[in-house]
Amino acid sequence: MRDFGGIVERSPARVVRPASPDEVVAAVREATAQGLDAVPRGTGHSTFGQSLTTGVSLDLRGLSGVHENGERHAAVAAGTTWREVLAATLPLGLVPPVLTDHLDVTVGGTISAGGVGGTSHLHGTQADNVLALDVVADGALVTCSPTVRPDLFDAVRAGLGRHGVITGATLRLVPAPERVLSCTIPCQNTSDLLRVQREVKAEHISGQVKPSADGWRFEAKAVLDGDGEPPPGTTETESLAYLDFADRMRPDVEELICLGEWARPHPWAMVFLPASQAAAVIESTLADMTPTDLGLSGVILVKSLRIGHVPMLAAPDDPVLFSVLRTASPGCAPVPDMLAANRRLLARATAAGGTRYAVDSTG
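Structure (tokenized):
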């Protein structure tokens, strides 16, 4: 069995596909009695075996559905994808404050990882926007929250399934805009890209570094609710229905699947950098890279954000998430070389006071 990263392969002793939280309890108890790990798995979007095991693999995709829609919250099963959450909440004019760029990953999976999105500079991580969790811990199903079993609540959010299996979550919701205005802002370099992210007032903001014939090209995306005034420096705008914006990755994913790139190994490096050191680390990393080190469909993202209160997600104050999302495409650097480059980046980040985002492939 492999995950999205396609680098690590493990054969589980067995795969259990529970259809209810009680079946998760039974599977965890049986695994414990046999001395086996029980590792939860949603869509398997980890990149270095985080969702794999030689013990019992708990495929939680059978736990899906939005069971309750309140005025400002939704109770959902852990195997529900964010696409399914949106399908239930958006008709009511509500959305989670933070969405992943790729909607076809599960609620339980991203909360277990932390979950970063384009609105994380305002709202923190997905794990910081959870009101309560249903968790199988110590062989029992319990509900935890900031006021009920807060120790467990803090341990399972961004805990990668090590301290309990999330079976359900109560998510905070906020009003959804009908339309958004996406603004493209070219930047001169990393420092300029980070400046734009600090200074521009936008509901959604992100940065990308792209290869070009003249070297690396820097670009910020600022997304405004409604039809606001484009920020200074904007060279291109696009008005979109909110759902079209939220699902903007879908055409790209479909194309990558057709090209075979989605199924190739993905040696991803993701590090949290202190804002004061981010430009230096990013520039030195880019100076050490060529497009073949990234892969044909690889992506480099730069995102200033807030973590919120998520103790398991270690990050410096005022963090910048630097993501080098490599794809081992034909004719590009091989996987071992990409992994070695990831380790160099992690060493560089650590020396600057940064930390690893543990869903990546540097471990």
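The chain has a mean pLDDT of 95. The chain is about 25% helix and 30% strand.
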